[in-house]
Design goal:
CATH topology of one domain: Immunoglobulin-like
CATH architecture of one domain: Sandwich
Strand content: 25-35%
Bound molecules: calcium ion
Distance between the termini: 20 Å
Number of helices: 3
Order of helices and strands: HEEEEEEEEHH
Helix content: 25-40%
Structural class: alpha+beta
Number of strands: 8
Shape: rod-shaped
Length: 189
Amino acid sequence: MNSNDATSSQGLMIWRITTWVCYGIIVAAVLASVLLAAVSSTGLSRITVTALNPAAEPRDPQIPLMDANDVLPDYEIAVIQTSGRTTKLGAKPNTSAVDGLVWTLNEPVSTASIVGIRLLDQDQFVSDVVTEVQLTGPRVVSHDYQFDFETQRTLSLGIRSFFETPLGAAIVVGFLIAVIWIFCAAYWL
Ligand SMILES: [Ca+2]
Ligand SMILES: [Ca+2]
């Protein structure tokens, strides 16, 4: 065996090892994506807010000739996500939350992507923040307000949020590079 043969067989060996590493990457990418999709498939679908202390609810200033009902709070909910996206769920004008107010999300938002739920009192110019909570469980109490969260699991949400996360995108890129490598190896060897 001359030195040229030795070099080429060494090159072949490295080529083969790389191909096996690529197979490993593909298996790991598939497993990771299934796991990641399962984690992010839980979506927030409903929020119920109840005021525990009616005396502490915000009131709008009373202006002469204004409807007495207008002083009641105008609650609205904002869902804040890790991407910085804030989704407002609409205001409920002049309604007390003593009996509980319900907001239903048209499209569930992945709970893994939610950093906070903000309760606001809508005003003409700038809405006041009443309180903000994190999704630490199905029921969270903060500043005399009780938040009840309902979630649902959906596969489509898991898949969608998977592609939206940087980790998901990195897994897809790794997977594609590994597949291209294996195809090239099969062609040239
Ligand atoms: Ca009002
Ligand atoms: Ca208001």
